[in-house]
């Protein structure tokens, strides 16, 4: 239902020094209407230009400091509110070249009353200036 809003338009950017980026980032929203504790986010998957990003290269920050996906599993005191943007940062030497990039983002969420995970995904072409 909210899948087309997961990737925030215009949010793709390189991170780190302009002459030597350490990666790239984009903003994302939660695909569940109530918000969710970070420990209930089972997976965040990112693909850029057809290449899957390794789990260990992904960092998540809802505004309280970046976490690896492994650290999110025990972040019992942190939440991702519905409608709030979080920053997804990918560690990748050199970042992304200027121009258009195909970005795919998927969330697998554990919802307490559902007997199966909620899987939400979005794909967009975004541009880095």
From TrEMBL:
An example of a Pfam family matching this protein is CGDB
Q: Does the keyword Lyase apply?
A: yes
Identify the InterPro entries for this entry. Answer: CGDB
Q: Residue ranges of the C-glycoside deglycosidase beta subunit domain?
A: 2-113
Query: Could you tell me the keywords of this UniProt record?
Result: Carbohydrate metabolism, Lyase
Q: Which domain of life is it from?
A: Bacteria
Family, according to the entry, reads as follows:
Belongs to the C-glycoside deglycosidase beta subunit family.
Q: What is this protein called?
A: C-deglycosylation enzyme beta subunit
